[in-house]
Amino acid sequence: MTFKAPDSLSEQIAHHLAERIIRGELAPGERIQEQKVTQALNVSRGSVREALLILERRHLVTILARRGAHVTRLDERSVRSLCTLMGELYILLGNEVARKWATEADLLPFLAIQQRLQQAHDRQDIKTFVAESFAVMRAAYPFADNPYLRETVENLQPAMSRAYYLALDQRKASMIDYLELFARLLEAVLARDLPRIREVLTAYCQRSCELVLAALAKG
């Protein structure tokens, strides 16, 4: 495997490992051995170490002295904590879009994402669907214009992707649920209805949390 710019080498390695964790190819609690990654990807050990630090910041691995890096475990406490926080961050982003959109052209990126989500649903393409669901928040960043909010969401996004992927992959969640949510959310944003935005996103995050926990229990 060959890695190239524009991302730094460590970021590319981190992304590669994150994808494996999100898809469940690296199991919770499994040790990630630096030497094996170095050999498999033909990269330096220093780059792998930096990549693991990135993954630790993104809550996908835990690094312990003399024990190395291990994939973080998903349990009820971590899932509920993550869903609660992400729900509030989503609400902040939704409110900023509702407050600041000026013309219909401002909402075109969200309509394009909605179309891509529908196409992924039609193909039952879980990976693309999860990726596009997070494209929604990135389309909202310019309205918020808040680098701290953006950094926080980006660092938490891989952990949330992992949880969503688990629920969808085990058929505990339906992609149509998210499509219906997104349609209601766009209606609320268009109407600049902030209480409705909170209602829609809170209810969805709570239900998503329960679906992830059900998938965990089954696993």
From TrEMBL:
SUPFAM superfamilies, per this entry?
Answer: GntR ligand-binding domain-like, Winged helix' DNA-binding domain
Q: What InterPro entries does the entry give?
A: GntR_C, TF_FadR/GntR_C, Tscrpt_reg_HTH_GntR, WH-like_DNA-bd_sf, WH_DNA-bd_sf
Signal peptide span per the entry? none
Q: Which CDD domains match?
A: WHTH_GntR
Q: Which UniProt keywords apply?
A: DNA-binding, Transcription, Transcription regulation
* Parts forming coiled coils: none
Domain HTH gntR-type residue range list: 7-74
Molecular functions per Gene Ontology: DNA binding; DNA-binding transcription factor activity
From which domain of life does this come?
Bacteria
Provide the protein name.
Answer: GntR family transcriptional regulator
- What species does this protein belong to? Pseudomonas cremoricolorata
The lineage, from the top, is: Bacteria, Pseudomonadati, Pseudomonadota, Gammaproteobacteria, Pseudomonadales
